[in-house]
Amino acid sequence: MAGYIVKRIFAIIPIFLFATLLSFTMIHLSPVDPAEVYLTVAHIHPTDKVLAQVRHEFGLDQPLIVQYVQSILKMCRLDFGTSYITKEPVWQEVVLRMPATLQLAFGSIVMAVFVSVPLGFLSAIYKNSFIDHLTRMIAFIGASIPQFWLGYLLIFFLSLKLDLLPVQGKGTWAHLILPSMTLALGLIAIYSRLLRSNVLEQLHEFYVLYGRARGLRERLIMSKHVLRIAISPMITGLGMNMGKLLAGTIIVEQVFSWPGFGRYFVESIFNRDLPVIQCYVFLAACLFILCNLIVDLLQMMLDPRISRKGRAEH
Predict the structure, then answer these.
(1) Residue 247: inside a domain, yes or no?
(2) Model pLDDT for residues 178-203, shown as the tens digit of each residue
(3) What is the CATH number of the domain that holds 113?
(4) In angstroms, rounded to a whole number, what is the distance separating the alpha carbons of residues 305 and 310?
């Protein structure tokens, strides 16, 4: 198991380098001059002399390969520079805002899991029943409605009309419900249908027939064997969507005025705050890589054949 983990960690390095190189290239291909943006935000007239001075200060007059290596070294030290707008270190701003984004992402994941697993499992067990039709309807609605529109619908009905939950902001646990529901509905639509199809597929496998022939209880076959195997692809999707949620709660944070990192990133785009944009791309890549590594380890725990396969390859 340790060898498999080390192998997966070493496989992360080229992915990380590719992600940073891609973001670095896209930023430098942009027609926007970081030095000019910095002076514009600071309300300083960008003369040639001042532009040359700022470029030298930021290291923009050095070869691109030198700039890339220096940016990688700074990122490894969590040094992302200073924000053009707030004049504060970018990492300090991220540390202040990231807990709110993590809270929103984990809240939506927990809500999605606790709803989609029972719905998907029961809709497969009781195929073409009421709960199966209900699951299909929820999946259709969740896959069809855009997140921003769903957020406004929830605000209108649950906050303005029924006055059950607060509209915007972050404070008590009640403030977390509406944005979490907005993010979770799309995940519920995906996971419930995925689990349903996987359970139906597993029910036709020979080990289910063999377990019934041995006289094993139906509940034991379904919970210990069928569900454990059928939920494996769902865990893979969960890990990928976890990274997506952490890096992509931008729209929901804007709708509900949630003070997270996604909202901070949107503001930095409008203000052309390049250090913040670089930090966001770096953290998004790291979150996707980390979540996929955790999923691989969970898959190995659920299916020991993965670790045996890894040892056989060595």
Answers:
(1) yes
(2) 898 988 888 888 889 889 998 998 88
(3) 1.10.3720.10
(4) 9
